[in-house]
Amino acid sequence: MQTWEIAGHTLEFYEDGHQYLVDGVCVDSITQMLKVKFGRKYEGISRDVLKRASAKGTEVHEAIQELFETGEVADLPEVKNFLFLRRQYGFNVKECEMPVILHLDDKPIAAGRLDLVLEMGGQIGGADIKRTSKLDKQYLAYQLNLYRIAYRQCYGVQWEFLRGIHLRESVRKFVSIPIDEESAWRLVHEYLYILGGNK
Fold first, then answer.
1. Does any domain span residue 14?
2. HSE-up (13 A, CA, CB side) for residue 171
3. What is the pTM of this model?
4. Is 24 part of a structural domain of the chain?
5. What are the 10-residue block averages of pLDDT along the chain, 199 residues in total?
């Protein structure tokens, strides 16, 4: 279990079951919230393939977190390509695996951990690392805009840009993602309606 104090709330995360609690109350993850719109994203792909892809994605995420925290460079092509992108685009990692709580009318409704907070050209923004075979920019847009809202609510900092970082073996892309909070809020309301209307 991991615990954080954020914006007057206690956030707990239980790895077993991937469960978040805010002040002792279970809330869905932001990833679960996204399933309202993208629930069939991996339909037709075998469980074994998804399990292997998830394990590889976790390995890459952990290696980049280790790079940020200790400077240790894992012997993975994705890490080398991450370093290439950092040199190429001139960004610095400010924070990694940051916990956030998403609120609606001051009520916690979801939680998550965002991959990266970046500083680039004097501006602060958020980024997510993907190791999928194809980069789903629409999914990323909803995900990053929800994290942008939650990060501002928790830490009082407004992101000026959003980026997708696509790393898969020899693939290395640093992709601009549009800021669109209106669409993100529509998804939130759709999610709450499906859960039971007037939460």
1. no
2. 15
3. 0.90
4. no
5. 95 92 96 85 62 78 91 93 96 96 96 97 97 92 98 97 95 97 96 73
